Backbone:
C-alpha cells in the first residue's frame, strides 16, 4: 500500500511540473489561430519570435535584461502568495524603488566611492519598495482592507508621485534650461552604473571578439553574450542570488516557515503562537522590497536615470506575477520562467516587425498564457482534491488492517 | 415483497483503490437500515452511487424493483431518492422556504412565498419536523438546519432517504427529535438509510444493519434486534475492541489551571461566557459537558489565548488571560482544538512541518533563526513511529491523512511538549472505534504523567469514561461540578438543560 501511495504522489508531481509547458503550448496554439485570422503565417511569426529572443547574442542579452526585473518582482510575488497575501502592487513598489534609488544616487553623487553609493542606492530602493508594500499589508492586518484593492490604489499613487517629482523637484536641470521640460531626472554619475558583463570580461582579460577566436554559430553568440558589448548587466546575477536567498529564507528559516504557515492556514498559525498580523505585514513588506529592488536595479543597471514611471516599470509588476505563477511560486522555478517571459517580451517585438502585426498581439499571447496557466492550476488543484479523497480512504483502510 | 432499493454486486473503483468490492445491499420498504463501517470503509461511496453522484464500475441497481442507471443526482431525485449530507448545503441568508424551493421549476417566475410557506408547514406537521418557514438559515441551530435539509428532500418527493452521519452534529435532545422524525417517516411508508459509526445509536434505531469493512460487506442486512455494540464493533474493525478504556485511581496533585470569574463574547459579539470559575489539578481530567454552543469553544479559546476575555486565568500561578497564544504555549498549555483541519493543522504542509509547529523555535529543531529540517524530519519520524501514525512518509501533506491519523499527529505534537495543562476539545469527534480507543488512551497516559486536562466533549460516554470530575456548562455558566463517581447521566442531562445543582461542599472544595 505505501508503495502505491508514493507512486501516485510522484506521478502527481510529474504532471504538475509538465503543466506549465502544456499551458504555454496551448496559449501559442490559440495565438496561432489568431495569427491565421489576421492572415499571417504563424510558423513564420513564431520562428521570428524564437530566433529573436534566443538565438543571437543581442536577443539573448535583451531577454536576460528583461528577465532580471521579472525575476525580482516574481520572487516578491512568490513570497506574498506563500504568505497568503496577493500583491498586485509590484508596479508601484518598483516605481517608488526606482525613484528613491535615483534620488539617492543624484543626492550622494560622487561624494562617496561608487560601489558604496551603489549599495546605498540599491538598499534604499529596496527599503522604499518594502515600505510601499508594507502599507497595504498593515491595512490588511489591522483593518482587514482587501490588499488587492489597496495595492492597485498604491500603484496609482506611486505613478502620480513619480510624475510630480519628475516634473518638479527631480527634473533634470538640463530639461529646464533647454525648455523641453520632459519629465525625467538627470543622468546618474557613471560611477554608479552597475557593471555590464562586457566590463567584467574586459577586467578579467577577455578582449578577443568571437570572430577573432574563430568561433561560429551559437557558440559565438554565447561567447559574445558574455564578452562583447551588450546591455547585459550584473543585475541578473543579483536577481539569481536573490532567488537562492529567498529559497533558503522560505524553506530553511524560522521566519520563512512562519510566513508559509500563515499563508497556508492563518487559524492554525495563530493557534501555534504566531503573531499572524505581523507576518501579513512582513510578507507584503518583503514582497514590496523585492519589487523595489527591481526598480533600483533597472535604474542602476539599465536606464541610469528616472523617467516616465510607467515606462520604467514597463508592466513588470504585472508580468512578474505571471512569471511567478508560471514558476509555481517557487523562487528557483521563477528563474527559468522569468527568462521565458523575458524572451516572450523580446521575441514579441521581433515577431511584430517580421510579420507586421500590431504590438498588442504580443500582449494578447501573454494574456493567453496567463489564462492557460491559471486554468491549468485550477485543473490540477481539482485533480489533487480528487486524489485526496481516494488516498484518504486508502489511509484509513490501512489503519483498520493494522 | 418488493425492495425499495436493491444494490447487487456493486463495484466502485477509484484510481488505485477498490472502494466497493462486490457489495450487496437491500433496503426494504418502511425500514430504517443502518449502514455501518469505519471511516473509509466505503459507506459514503456506496451511498453516493445510490444518490447518483458516482457511477458504479460494475453491478446492478434496482429501485422499487426496476433496474435504474443514474447519470446525475437529478436522476436519483426523480427516482425518489434523497440524500442529506453531513455538511449542509444551504444558503445562510435565505429563508427556510427559499432554501427548500431552490432549484425547483415551481414557482416559475413570481415568488408567492406565503403560499409555499403553508405547503411546507403541512409537510412539517406530517413528519414532526418543526422549523419556522420564514426564518433565515443563519438564525437556526444545527439541528434545525438539518430539518431543513430533510424537508428539502421530502418536498422533492423522496421516499428513500439517505442520512449521512446525521447525529454527528447534534445535541442529545436533537438526536431524540431526529429519531422520532425518522420513525414517523417509516410509519408513513418511507425508507431510511442511516449511515453511522456510533454503535449505540445503531442498535437503538435501526431495524436492520449492513456492515462494511474495507469495501466489502461483513454483515448483510442482519436484524438489529439482539445485536450488541461489541458485536457490531467486531464486524466493523475485524477484531475485538476493548470497549471502555480503563482509568486508574489517582490522587490529583496541585491546582494547575485556575479560571476565575471569566466572561467573554463569541464570534458574533454575543456574551458566551458569563463569570466562569473552575480549576483543574495535576493528574486530573475535568470534563466539560454541555449541549453544543453553550460556551465550550469559547472557554477553550480564552484559556489558550485565542480569545479576549475578562477575569483571571492562571496556569501554575502565571496569569495568561488576554495574552497572545504564545504565552500559554510557553507556560505549558497544550491545545487539541475542535477543528483539526482548520486550526489544529495546516493541511497543505507536510507531516514534518505540522509536527514542528510549536517546537521549531528551539533546539533541537531550530535555533530561533533557522530550522534544521533534517532534525525536524527525524523528530517527525520518531513521533510517527511512537504514535503509530499511518502515512507513507513524513513528507506527505497533512491533508492526505485520515481523521484519526491527523488527530494523532496533533496529539503527538502537543504531548511531545510535555504539557502541564492540556485543553482537549472534542478529541474523538468523527473518529472510528479504533482511533477513539488510541486517542482516549493517550489522554489517560497524560493524566498519569501528571498533566491537568480539561476535556470538552459532547459525548457523555466519553466524559464518564475519562473524567475525574464533570462540570456542566449551560449558556456560558457552570451549572455545577460533580465527581464522576457520584453522578449519573440523568443528573448531568438535567444540568445540561439549565437546572443548577445546589452547591455542595465537594464541588467547591477545589
Residues:
Amino acid at each position: 500500500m505505501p508503495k502505491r501511495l508514493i507512486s501516485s504522489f510522484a506521478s502527481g508531481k510529474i504532471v504538475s511540473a509538465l503543466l506549465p509547458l502544456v499551458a504555454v503550448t496551448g496559449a501559442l496554439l490559440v495565438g496561432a489561430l489568431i495569427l491565421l485570422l489576421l492572415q499571417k503565417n504563424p510558423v513564420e511569426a513564431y520562428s521570428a519570435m524564437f530566433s529573436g529572443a534566443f538565438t543571437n547574442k543581442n536577443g539573448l542579452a535583451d531577454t536576460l535584461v528583461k528577465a532580471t526585473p521579472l525575476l525580482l518582482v516574481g520572487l516578491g510575488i512568490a513570497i506574498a502568495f506563500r504568505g497568503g497575501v496577493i500583491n498586485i502592487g509590484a508596479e508601484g513598489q518598483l516605481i517608488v524603488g526606482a525613484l528613491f534609488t535615483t534620488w539617492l544616487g543624484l543626492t550622494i553623487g560622487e561624494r562617496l566611492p561608487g560601489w558604496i553609493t551603489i549599495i546605498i542606492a540599491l538598499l534604499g530602493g529596496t527599503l522604499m519598495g518594502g515600505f510601499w508594500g508594507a502599507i497595504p499589508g498593515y491595512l490588511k492586518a489591522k483593518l482587514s482592507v482587501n490588499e488587492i484593492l489597496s495595492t492597485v490604489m498604491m500603484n496609482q499613487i506611486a505613478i502620480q508621485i513619480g510624475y510630480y517629482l519628475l516634473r518638479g523637484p527631480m527634473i533634470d536641470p538640463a530639461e529646464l534650461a533647454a525648455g523641453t521640460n520632459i519629465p525625467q531626472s538627470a543622468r546618474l554619475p557613471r560611477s554608479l552604473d552597475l557593471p555590464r558583463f562586457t566590463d567584467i570580461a574586459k577586467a578579467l582579460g577577455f578582449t578577443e571578439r568571437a570572430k577573432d577566436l574563430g568561433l561560429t554559430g551559437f557558440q559565438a553568440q554565447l561567447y559574445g553574450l558574455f564578452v562583447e558589448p551588450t546591455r547585459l548587466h550584473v543585475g541578473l546575477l543579483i536577481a539569481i542570488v536573490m532567488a537562492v536567498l529567498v529559497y533558503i529564507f522560505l524553506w530553511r528559516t524560522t521566519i520563512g516557515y512562519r510566513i508559509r504557515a500563515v499563508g497556508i492556514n492563518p487559524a492554525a498559525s495563530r493557534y501555534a503562537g504566531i503573531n499572524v498580523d505581523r507576518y501579513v505585514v512582513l510578507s507584503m513588506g518583503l514582497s514590496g522590497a523585492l519589487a523595489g529592488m527591481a526598480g533600483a536595479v533597472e535604474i542602476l543597471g539599465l536606464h541610469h536615470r528616472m523617467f516616465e514611471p510607467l515606462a520604467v516599470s514597463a508592466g513588470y509588476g504585472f508580468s512578474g506575477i505571471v512569471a511567478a505563477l508560471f514558476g509555481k511560486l517557487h523562487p528557483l522555478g521563477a528563474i527559468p520562467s522569468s527568462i521565458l517571459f523575458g524572451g516572450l517580451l523580446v521575441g514579441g517585438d521581433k515577431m511584430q516587425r517580421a510579420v507586421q502585426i500590431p504590438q498588442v498581439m504580443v500582449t494578447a499571447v501573454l494574456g493567453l498564457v496567463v489564462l492557460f496557466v491559471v486554468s491549468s492550476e485550477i485543473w490540477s488543484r481539482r485533480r489533487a482534491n480528487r486524489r485526496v479523497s481516494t488516498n484518504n480512504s486508502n489511509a484509513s483502510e490501512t489503519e483498520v488492517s493494522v | 415483497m418488493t425492495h425499495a432499493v436493491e444494490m447487487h454486486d456493486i463495484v466502485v473503483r477509484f484510481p488505485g483503490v477498490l472502494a466497493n468490492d462486490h457489495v450487496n445491499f437491500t433496503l426494504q420498504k418502511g425500514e430504517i437500515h443502518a449502514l455501518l463501517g469505519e471511516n473509509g470503509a466505503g459507506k459514503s461511496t456506496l451511498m453516493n452511487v445510490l444518490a447518483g453522484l458516482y457511477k458504479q464500475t460494475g453491478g446492478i441497481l434496482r429501485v422499487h424493483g426496476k433496474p435504474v442507471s443514474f447519470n446525475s443526482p437529478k436522476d436519483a431525485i426523480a427516482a425518489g431518492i434523497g440524500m442529506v449530507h453531513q455538511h449542509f448545503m444551504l444558503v445562510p441568508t435565505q429563508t427556510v422556504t427559499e432554501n427548500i424551493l431552490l432549484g425547483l421549476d415551481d414557482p416559475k417566475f413570481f415568488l408567492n412565498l406565503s403560499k409555499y410557506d403553508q405547503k411546507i408547514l403541512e409537510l412539517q406537521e406530517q413528519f414532526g419536523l418543526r422549523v419556522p418557514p420564514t426564518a433565515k438559515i443563519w438564525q437556526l441551530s444545527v439541528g434545525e438546519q438539518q430539518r431543513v435539509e430533510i424537508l428539502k428532500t421530502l418536498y422533492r418527493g423522496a421516499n428513500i432517504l439517505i442520512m449521512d452521519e446525521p447525529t454527528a452534529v447534534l445535541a442529545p435532545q436533537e438526536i431524540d427529535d431526529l429519531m422520532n422524525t425518522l420513525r414517523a417517516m417509516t410509519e408513513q411508508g418511507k425508507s431510511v438509510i442511516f449511515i453511522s459509526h456510533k454503535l449505540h445509536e445503531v442498535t437503538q434505531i435501526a431495524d436492520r444493519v449492513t456492515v462494511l469493512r474495507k469495501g466489502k460487506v461483513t454483515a448483510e442486512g442482519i436484524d438489529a434486534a439482539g445485536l450488541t455494540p461489541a458485536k457490531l464493533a467486531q464486524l466493523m474493525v475485524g477484531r475485538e475492541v476493548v470497549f471502555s478504556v480503563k482509568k486508574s485511581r489517582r490522587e490529583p496533585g496541585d491546582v494547575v489551571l485556575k479560571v476565575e470569574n471569566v466572561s467573554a463574547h463569541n464570534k458574533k459579539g454575543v456574551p458566551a461566557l458569563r463569570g466562569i470559575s473552575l480549576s483543574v489539578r495535576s493528574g486530573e481530567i475535568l470534563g466539560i459537558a454541555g449541549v453544543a454552543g453553550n460556551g465550550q469553544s469559547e472557554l477553550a479559546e480564552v484559556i489558550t489565548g485565542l480569545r479576549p476575555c475578562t477575569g483571571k486565568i492562571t496556569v501554575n500561578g502565571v496569569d495568561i488571560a488576554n495574552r497572545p497564544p504564545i504565552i500559554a504555549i510557553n507556560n505549558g498549555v497544550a491545545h487539541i482544538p475542535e477543528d483539526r483541519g482548520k486550526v489544529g493543522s495546516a493541511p497543505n504542509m507536510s507531516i514534518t512541518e505540522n509536527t514542528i509547529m510549536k517546537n521549531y523555535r528551539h533546539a533541537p529543531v531550530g535555533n530561533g533563526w533557522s530550522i534544521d529540517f533534517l532534525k525536524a524530519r527525524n523528530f517527525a519520524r520518531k513521533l510517527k513511529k511512537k504514535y503509530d501514525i499511518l502515512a507513507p512518509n513524513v513528507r506527505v501533506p497533512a491533508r492526505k491523512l485520515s481523521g484519526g491519523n491527523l488527530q494523532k499527529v496533533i496529539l503527538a505534537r502537543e504531548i511531545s511538549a510535555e504539557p502541564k495543562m492540556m485543553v482537549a476539545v472534542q478529541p474523538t469527534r468523527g473518529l472510528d472505534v479504533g482511533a477513539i480507543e488510541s486517542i482516549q488512551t493517550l489522554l489517560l497516559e497524560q493524566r498519569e504523567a501528571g498533566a491537568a486536562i480539561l476535556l470538552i466533549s459532547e459525548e457523555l460516554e466519553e466524559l464518564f469514561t475519562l473524567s475525574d470530575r464533570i462540570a456542566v456548562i449551560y449558556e456560558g455558566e457552570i451549572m455545577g461540578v460533580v465527581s464522576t463517581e457520584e453522578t449519573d447521566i440523568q443528573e448531568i442531562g438535567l444540568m445540561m438543560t439549565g437546572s443548577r445543582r445546589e452547591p455542595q461542599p465537594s464541588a467547591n472544595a477545589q
Summary: Chain A has 17 helices and no strands. The first helix of chain A runs from residue 2 to 37.
